[in-house]
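Notes from the 1:1 (GR / supervisor)

We went over the backlog. Supervisor wanted to see one worked example end to end before approving the batch request, so GR pasted a single chain during the call. The sequence is below; no edits were made to it. Supervisor asked that the structure be written out right there so they could see what the output format looks like.
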Amino acid sequence: MIEIRASEIFSKEDFYKLINELFDFSNRVSNLDGLFDELVGARKKIRIRDYKILYDRLGEYGLRIIKVFIDASFILDIDVDLIS
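Structure output shown during the call:
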């Protein structure tokens, strides 16, 4: 399982640094399209803890991050948990 702790994210740069450290992506991810593309190969359960903080700190972009993971859950059948 991969756990993303939103409490550790204060900027877009923090998010992408953390994502690239946690996941073993074949390419470095630096935008949301790239994130979704790389999630195609992800087969581990993903947990996003304190996910509401992403919106609080990153605004609309934080909401778009959450949407990418939700879309991946439905479209790619990846197990994603959003924990408050």
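Supervisor's comment: The mean pLDDT is 96.
Batch request approved.
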